[in-house]
Write a structure and sequence with these properties.
This protein starts with 7 loop residues before the first helix and ends in a 22-residue tail after the last strand. It is globular, with a radius of gyration of 20 Å. It is of the alpha+beta class. It has one domain. A hairpin with a 6-residue loop joins β9 and β10. α5 crosses α6. 17% of the residues lie in helices and 29% in strands.
Length: 281
């Protein structure tokens, strides 16, 4: 253990600086989206079974909702451009722009070189939760997803109904590709309804029982054509552990909606990032 220098207190007292000031970040037109939400027509639904995953598609300019049904349950969400799997959700940049947890009015961003909004959160029935006394909040872009590799590393054995494997199976089935290929497309997730944070003492990622209850939902507007995959996490409400056959688990409902014709005439899909990719050469 190194000894603190004489000016340790001074160094610690340096004020932090926000890495990515967002004053110039283009803002979604929430008034326009709210007006469109007032008259939506349901176009389809997918019920995600406990400890499993399902895929769904959403055309650009439509909405989708993830709803808790039957019991408290969290979900791991992957999103891709429906016609280009290389354009997928970038949790790290979303976290850098919006913070560790996201809610209504914030956006999910795509990976380089595209870097554009892919989905805007338009309603969050858990927005009231805010940040609790432990530093916990809901809908995080911190966690990567429960997976069989980390499970094997820490506990040994072969567990196949963790979220990574669930999403892999669902994507492989949807695209009719091999599991090994599908696994490479599965990426860090939006942890829907999951309540998480970092411990103040050690900085470790923690989870606690989700406040979600049947009827709660998180709603999104598709800024581009989307392919989604949602896993109903084997941790249930994540009050005890990940990758568990013991936790009570429940299904999650995904519903898609179309706006009334003309409701979004003023909306335009976001363009791909304008960087020329010459990288100084």
């Amino acid at each position: 253990m190194t000894q603190p220098p004489q000016d340790a207190a001074v160094r610690r007292a340096v004020k932090p600086v926000i890495c990515y000031p967002v004053e110039t970040l283009p803002q979604p037109d929430m008034a326009l989206y709210d007006a469109a939400r007032a008259d939506l027509q349901k176009t389809g639904e997918t019920l995600v079974p406990p400890r499993d995953a399902r895929t769904f598609t959403v055309p650009a300019g439509h909405f989708f909702r993830i709803t808790s049904v039957e019991g408290s349950q969290v979900g791991d969400l992957n999103l891709w451009h429906a016609n280009d799997l290389s354009e997928r959700f970038y949790s790290g940049k979303t976290r850098a722009l919006h913070g560790t947890h996201i809610t209504r009015g914030q956006q999910m961003w795509t990976a380089f070189p595209h870097l554009r909004p892919m989905a805007t959160l338009t309603h969050d029935s858990l927005e009231w939760y805010g940040m609790d006394e432990f530093g916990g909040s809901v809908h995080d872009v911190i966690g990567t997803r429960c997976d069989p590799f980390t499970h094997n590393l820490l506990s040994g054995g072969q567990y196949h109904h963790c979220c990574h494997s669930n999403l892999t199976r669902a994507l492989a089935h949807h695209l009719d590709i091999q599991l090994a290929e599908a696994s490479t497309h599965v990426h860090d997730v939006l942890n829907v309804f999951m309540c998480t944070g970092f411990t103040r003492e050690t900085g470790q990622y923690f989870m606690k029982a989700s406040p979600v209850r049947p009827g709660d939902y998180l709603e999104f507007f598709a800024e581009i054509d989307l392919l989604g995959a949602l896993s109903a996490c084997p941790g249930g409400d994540c009050s005890s552990e990940h990758s568990s056959d013991m936790a009570a688990c429940y299904p999650l409902l995904v519903e898609t909606f179309a706006p009334k014709e003309g409701a979004l005439d003023a909306w335009h899909a976001p363009k791909r990032n304008g960087y020329d990719q010459t990288h100084g050469v």
